[in-house]
């Protein structure tokens, strides 16, 4: 098993160009690609009628425009925020239990 | 039935005893052929096979064929085969032997027709898995393994107590569908749930598994929790209490994984999350939900094994396990990265992967039962899976910042193992009917509808968008998160330490008091009886004569009077 960083780290190669993904100028392109994909998956909303599972209970929100998109986004943002808040109380240095 | 039958699990358990005595090619052959033989034995067993043995007043059934058992035994055998391939070059003899005994006893559970047989295999699993953890050979693995063993022995005691109470109640040891309505059945349910990673003891998974060796954790991720899913599936289908427990596990896994920095601990929390889906589905209890739980368990073992093989390869090649130390590895470990991403897509239930065709059975079952809240929570959790495992793991390990590490891909056997599992993840996703055909109940479900495809893409891609938008909030820190294990790792330890301290102070004070008393006594004796003591002094003759004269004088005076 290789454990020392010297084995794996490549200090010498200054000439090696950074990978495409890591170049600063490409960052806006990556965001644009992402947003284009998001718009593409929203496109079918205009043609597809979603199956409503809970119509009998009077819940029709899952038929609203892009429900699965915004619901996924909001709940994920909520979970990240919740984790952040709980982290204030739960996080400890990773040497906390070391004897 | 009178014909000779051998429990398929015993092939692995007994065959594992040969691993230490064989080396090189013969050992590799054994490691490959034992799981293959087991798989054949599982499928050769007739559908109505049953071996009954009288024991005291009870009837034991060490072998009983069931559709659920066959399904779980199948995926356990596949796991043992591919896990063996992944492990055989670099894992220690002890780890390989223990892992195969562990796998075999898990298969033993799936064929157990009575609770006593189940319990015996259950405990062999606890011992085998503990040895797998210890095989990492580090002090932290030793301590984590000890904590793991204690939790599982506790679970075992609860289970055994429940079995005794159940046998006294009903006069039967048969392992069959039960209602949690008596002390015995409640204890049995609790014993099963301990192994499933249910609250409050969920912490043992993320505490112990990541301390195992790279291959050790691959084995560990597959058997214990999924055997518990099997036991719940057969023993307590439709038990309402399982729905809230499962939902709690789902969100517990997401939140803790989001906070975690250790790549394999992220995946450990994700096990709790995934088992939570299955537990909730078992609680829903319809045929579709139970099919969903079984299918999800099948698919989960494969993609979670794949994810841990990918993480294990990174650990093996870099010696690093924290996200803060990793990043940019896709450049030099493309095979590991690609397979890790396939596993990540499968666990997120991306269309055309195994997760998509299995997990959707569970969410649809909730919808069909009109359980709105459960459905909304499961949908949010599906998005959360992509967040905490689907993107977080590959992103922080293979992409994010460039750590400068340039390790090569792992040796060939590890790469082949990953390719096999990647292939299965996609094959199940493309041909779901093969898996549907061996589920417990007939499946009337079509995962590939335009509606389902579109909604799933929307949920996942917007969840991914949320990840990148909030990336700053998820900056990795060198931290762990407190959990219930704080009580037994810190609270009671500190209390115990404090008690030791206080009691030793008190004891010292008592001791000093006693010594002081004794010294005082000796001093007094010395004062009176010592060389200068009043009672031991040498008296001069003159003073004696004087006192005799005084006494005589006094007696004369008295006589005269």
Summarize the structure.
Chain A is mainly alpha-helical and 99 residues long.
Structure explained in plain terms:
- The complex is a heterodimer of chains A (99) and B (561).
- Chain A has a domain at 26-90.
- Chain A is mostly helical and 99 residues long.
- The longest helix of chain A has 24 residues, at 67-90.
- Chain A is built from three helices and one strand.
- Chain A is flat and about 60 Å long.
- Chain A has helices at 5-8, 27-42, 67-90; one strand at 91-93.
- Chain A is 44% helix and 3% strand.
- Chain B has a two-stranded antiparallel sheet with strand order 1-2.
- Chains A and B meet through α2, α3 and β1 of A and α10, α12, α15, α18 and β3 of B.
How many H/I helical runs of chain B? 20
The whole-number mean of residue pLDDT values of chain A reads 80
End-to-end separation of chain B: 125 Å
Shape category of chain A: flat
How large, in whole angstroms, is the Cα Rg of chain B? 33 Å
Q: List the quaternary state of the chains.
A: heterodimer
Number of DSSP E strands of chain B: 3
Order of helices and strands of chain B: HHEEHHHHHHHHHHHHHHHHEHH
Query: What class do helices, strands and sheet pairing of chain B give?
Result: mainly alpha
Helix content of chain A: 40-55%
Q: Tags for this entry?
A:
heterodimer; A: 99 residues; mainly alpha; 44% helix; flat; disordered N terminus; B: 561 residues; 3 domains; two-stranded antiparallel ribbon; 20 helices; 3 strands; 3% strand
Layout of secondary structure:
The complex is a heterodimer of chains A (99) and B (561).
Chain A: H1 5-8, H2 27-42, H3 67-90, E1 91-93
Chain B: H1 8-15, H2 24-44, E1 50-55, E2 58-64, H3 67-87, H4 93-110, H5 115-134, H6 139-170, H7 183-196, H8 203-208, H9 214-235, H10 242-259, H11 263-284, H12 287-318, H13 334-347, H14 354-368, H15 372-398, H16 412-430, H17 432-436, H18 450-469, E3 479-481, H19 485-529, H20 541-560
Antiparallel strand pairs in B: 1-2
Helix pairs in contact in B: 1-2, 1-4, 2-3, 3-4, 3-9, 3-12, 3-16, 4-5, 4-9, 5-6, 5-9, 6-7, 7-9, 9-11, 9-12, 10-11, 10-15, 11-12, 11-14, 11-15, 12-13, 12-14, 12-16, 13-15, 13-16, 14-15, 14-16, 15-18
């Amino acid at each position: 098993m290789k454990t020392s960083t010297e084995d794996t780290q490549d200090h010498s190669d200054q000439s090696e160009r950074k990978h495409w993904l890591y170049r600063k100028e490409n960052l806006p392109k990556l965001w644009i690609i992402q947003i284009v994909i998001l718009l593409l998956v929203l496109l079918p909303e205009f043609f597809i009628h979603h199956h409503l599972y809970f119509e009998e209970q009077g819940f029709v929100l899952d038929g609203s425009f892009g429900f699965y998109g915004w619901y996924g986004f909001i709940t994920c943002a909520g979970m990240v925020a919740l984790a952040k808040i709980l982290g204030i109380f739960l996080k400890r240095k990773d040497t906390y239990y070391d004897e | 039935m009178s014909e000779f039958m051998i429990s398929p699990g015993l092939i692995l358990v007994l065959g594992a005893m040969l691993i230490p005595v064989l080396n090189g090619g013969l050992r590799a052959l054994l490691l490959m052929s034992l799981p293959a033989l087991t798989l054949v034995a599982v499928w050769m067993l007739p559908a109505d096979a049953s071996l009954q043995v009288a024991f005291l007043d009870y009837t034991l059934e060490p072998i009983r064929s069931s559709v659920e058992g066959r399904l779980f035994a199948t995926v356990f055998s596949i796991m043992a085969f591919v896990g063996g391939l992944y492990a055989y070059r670099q894992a220690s003899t002890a780890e390989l032997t223990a892992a195969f005994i562990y796998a075999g006893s898990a298969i033993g559970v799936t064929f157990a027709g009575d609770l006593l047989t189940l319990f015996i295999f259950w405990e062999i699993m606890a011992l085998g898995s503990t040895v797998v953890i210890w095989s990492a050979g580090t002090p932290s693995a030793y301590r984590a393994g000890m904590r793991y063993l204690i939790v599982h022995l506790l679970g075992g005691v609860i289970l055994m107590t429940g079995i005794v109470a159940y046998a006294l109640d009903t006069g039967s040891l048969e392992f069959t569908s039960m209602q949690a309505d008596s002390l015995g059945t409640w204890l049995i349910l609790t014993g099963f749930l301990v192994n499933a990673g249910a609250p409050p003891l969920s912490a043992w998974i993320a505490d112990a598994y990541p301390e195992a060796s790279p291959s050790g954790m691959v084995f560990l991720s597959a058997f214990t929790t999924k055997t518990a899913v099997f036991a719940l599936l057969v023993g307590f289908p439709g038990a309402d209490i399982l729905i809230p427990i499962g939902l709690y596990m789902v969100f517990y896994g997401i939140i803790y994984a989001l906070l975690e920095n250790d790549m394999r601990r992220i995946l450990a929390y994700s096990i709790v999350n995934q088992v939570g889906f299955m537990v909730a589905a078992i609680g829903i209890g319809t045929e579709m939900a139970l099919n969903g739980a079984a299918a999800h368990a099948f698919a989960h073992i494969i993609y979670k094994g794949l994810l841990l093989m990918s993480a294990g390869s990174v650990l093996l090649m870099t010696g690093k396990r924290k996200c803060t130390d990793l990043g940019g590895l896709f450049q030099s470990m493309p095979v590991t990265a690609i397979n890790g991403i396939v596993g990540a897509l499968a666990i997120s239930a991306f269309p055309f992967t195994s997760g998509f065709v299995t997990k959707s059975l569970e969410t649809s079952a909730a919808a069909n039962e009109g359980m709105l809240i459960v459905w909304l929570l499961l949908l949010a959790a599906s998005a959360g899976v992509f967040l905490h495992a689907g993107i977080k793991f590959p992103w922080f390990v293979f992409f994010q910042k460039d750590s400068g590490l340039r390790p090569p891909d792992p040796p060939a056997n590890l790469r082949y193992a990953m390719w096999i599992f990647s292939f299965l993840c996609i094959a199940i996703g493309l041909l779901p009917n093969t898996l549907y055909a061996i589920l417990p109940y007939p499946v009337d479900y079509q995962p590939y509808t335009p509606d389902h495809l579109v909604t799933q893409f929307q949920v996942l891609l917007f969840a991914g968008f949320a990840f990148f938008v909030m990336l700053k909030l998820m900056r990795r820190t060198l931290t762990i998160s407190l959990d219930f294990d704080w009580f037994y790792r810190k609270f009671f330890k500190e209390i115990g330490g404090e008690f030791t301290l206080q009691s030793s102070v008190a004891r010292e004070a008592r001791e000093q008091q006693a010594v002081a008393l004794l010294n005082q006594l000796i001093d007094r004796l010395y004062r009176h009886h010592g060389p200068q003591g009043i009672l031991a002094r040498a008296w001069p003759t003159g003073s004696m004569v004087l006192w005799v004269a005084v006494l005589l004088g006094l007696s004369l005076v008295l006589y005269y009077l």
